[in-house]
Amino acid sequence: MDAELGATKSGGGSGGMQRFAIVLTLVGLIGVLIFYWQVFFWVNTERTMGVAQRIFYLHVPAAWNAELGFGITALCSAIYLWLKDERLDWAAVAAAEAGMVFATLLLIEGSLWAKIAWGTYWTWEPRLTLTLLLWFIFLGYFMVRRSTDNSEHGKRFAAVLAIVGSLDIPLIHVSVLWFRSIHPKPVIMSADQPMNLEGDMLVTFFTALIAFTLLFLGLVAFRYGLERSQALVAQRLRRERSA
Amino acid sequence: MMRRARLAVLAAAILLLVPGFLLAQAEPGELAAQTLGRAYWHVFVGYAAAWILVGGWAISMTRRLARLERQLGKD
Amino acid sequence: MSLYLTQLWAVAWKDLVVEFRSRERVGAMAAFTALVGILFNFAIDPTVVRPEQIASGLIWLTLIFAGMLGLGRTFEIEAQDGALQGVLMTPIPRDALFLGKVLSNYLIMMAVVLLAMGVFGVLFALDWGNPAVVLATLSLGALGFTAVGTLFSAVSSGTAMGGTLLPILLFPLLVPVVIYGTSATNRLLADRPLSEVDGQLRMLGAFALVSLFVGAGLFRYVVEE
Questions:
Q1: What's the CATH number for A17-191+207-242?
Q2: Residue pLDDT, tens place only, C47-77
Q3: ipTM score of the complex?
Q4: Do the Cβ atoms of B42 and A115 come within 8 Å?
């Protein structure tokens, strides 16, 4: 990429990383374009839900990527606290940002779907509620990272929050499900009810899933490289100042 | 800087594609005939949101990278 | 084991003595609880809703806000004059330190719980039905809340934002406490049999246990230099 930046990178591998990120992102982008073409011009409209069912193709990959992102963050955070390897923290923050982007998308898709299917933008449907809470937990993750004078502390605090959050999620999920069950049920047609997908719908669905996952991996790899460069630049500046 | 410009053009082109879909879909074609014809707006907003969010994130990352490069150039 | 408990108690006792001499946190929390109870009375039209129907939600939210007020200061006093460094240099294991802090916070919290039951009982003319079970529900919920709250008060006092950050970190994690706590209290206030709140109490207990264990395990990474 850039000679200047390349000079700050210690050792090899980072150039390969950036190339890998760009290739993955481009392949993902092409896949997403194919998927958009499929959704708008190719795939048949589902009979009962009509055109709104098309949100489903976007909704499921968004959910999968959000979960993937937050899962990677929690895992990397736990190992980071254990091994204290900077790279794990870079991976955690990269995945957390991606998880945040896709969780936001998921919330938007979810409420658009809810508007059509249930007549309201927001319902306290368990999955929707859980996603909202996850979103707020990871909002805290970024706020805590940014609000420390000592960045090492910020990283550790954020990792602690990610671990507690991921352990709390099953409890939150159970409680939200339970909360739902004591309220009057709205007329629910679950977005994730197994629909008998026809061949073309299945193809579209998997195109979306694979394309967005590749895009996710590419962008996370790119973000990882960015975090790494930032850390190395900060390190070098510190060293120059103290010298 | 060249790279940034190229990225910006790419992003703009991609964003322009979205209204393209909108127009293509708004025509009373055969697709419209076979549906209820009420939920289009939501579907378009949903699919545009995907581009805006992912694209916005990518642009913010390239901006941060550019800032880092500026910082390096200054020192 | 007994050494561990002695160390744990030493930490808790130190905090309680500080608290007893200054009465800073308990005083603020108690005044807050009473004032919120009064404000809720003005905010609610008793001709529209019956107080028993919403009292459980109000009590839980009052406890959480009041608790936040006190928990946020757990590490403030020690952070101000660097006393935390001294505590950390003692040979007390980090988890004992954490559990000691939780214990002292919990005792302070329980004083507020008792006060809240009194204040809300009098101001809203509530019939507690079975006060012992209501108290048990509140104590279980307060235990989980205190454990998570103590951990994150250590986090937030390590940041530049301080106590402002605490609710943002804490509220999403406290959803199970609020849901199970209010629903159990609600049913108890409606004079339902004990068997109906059994599940909620178990879940509150599970939350408290998980929070204690996770907090004790992770606390060392929060205070580590």
A1: 1.20.120
A2: 888 888 888 899 999 999 999 988 888 888 8
A3: 0.89
A4: yes
